[in-house]
């Protein structure tokens, strides 16, 4: 019950903020534990598209973090092939119950706009260059 009350308030706040980077928010009012929306990045190379995400909140929210999955295919070093994202703010070690969903979404937008290739979830697309013997 506490989770749905808090999520209703957070959803209302996000919708009133008119965030241009998180749009088309779809939430079934009978199940506030599952959200869908579009992430709209501002920085190249991701600024030419919008990416559908799903946010799943556990019944224990805010004491346990939500999970985020990309439903639109995206080649990003911090998103794996299944759409799972490595976002420190929602890791079990870093999660704080005071963290709000808008902060999580902003962290996700920041990660998409500023990839962290030093912490990849997938291998680079280019094979490593190796020196060749002269002809």
From TrEMBL:
<dbReference type="InterPro" id="IPR023313">
    <property type="entry name" value="UBQ-conjugating_AS"/>
</dbReference>
<feature type="active site" description="Glycyl thioester intermediate">
    <location>
        <position position="86"/>
    </location>
</feature>
<dbReference type="InterPro" id="IPR050113">
    <property type="entry name" value="Ub_conjugating_enzyme"/>
</dbReference>
<keyword id="KW-0808">Transferase</keyword>
<dbReference type="InterPro" id="IPR000608">
    <property type="entry name" value="UBC"/>
</dbReference>
<dbReference type="InterPro" id="IPR016135">
    <property type="entry name" value="UBQ-conjugating_enzyme/RWD"/>
</dbReference>
<keyword id="KW-0833">Ubl conjugation pathway</keyword>
<comment type="similarity">
    <text>Belongs to the ubiquitin-conjugating enzyme family.</text>
</comment>
<dbReference type="GO" id="GO:0005524">
    <property type="term" value="F:ATP binding"/>
</dbReference>
<feature type="compositionally biased region" description="Pro residues">
    <location>
        <begin position="122"/>
        <end position="135"/>
    </location>
</feature>
<dbReference type="GO" id="GO:0061631">
    <property type="term" value="F:ubiquitin conjugating enzyme activity"/>
</dbReference>
<keyword id="KW-0547">Nucleotide-binding</keyword>
<keyword id="KW-0067">ATP-binding</keyword>
<protein>
    <recommendedName>
        <fullName>E2 ubiquitin-conjugating enzyme</fullName>
        <ecNumber>2.3.2.23</ecNumber>
    </recommendedName>
</protein>
<feature type="domain" description="UBC core">
    <location>
        <begin position="2"/>
        <end position="135"/>
    </location>
</feature>
<feature type="region of interest" description="Disordered">
    <location>
        <begin position="116"/>
        <end position="135"/>
    </location>
</feature>
<dbReference type="Pfam" id="PF00179">
    <property type="entry name" value="UQ_con"/>
</dbReference>
């Amino acid at each position: 019950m506490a989770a749905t009350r808090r999520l209703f308030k957070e959803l209302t706040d996000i919708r009133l903020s008119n965030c241009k980077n998180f749009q088309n928010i779809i939430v079934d009012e009978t199940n506030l534990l599952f959200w869908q929306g579009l992430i709209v990045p501002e920085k190249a190379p991701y600024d030419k598209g919008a990416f559908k995400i799903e946010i799943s909140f556990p019944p224990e929210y805010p004491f346990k973090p939500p999970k985020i999955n990309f439903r639109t295919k995206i080649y990003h070093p911090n998103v794996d092939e299944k759409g799972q994202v490595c976002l420190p703010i929602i890791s079990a070690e870093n999660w704080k119950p005071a963290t709000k969903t808008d902060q999580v979404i902003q962290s996700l937008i920041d990660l998409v706009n500023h990839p962290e290739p030093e912490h990849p979830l997938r291998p680079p697309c280019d094979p490593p260059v190796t020196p060749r013997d002269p002809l």
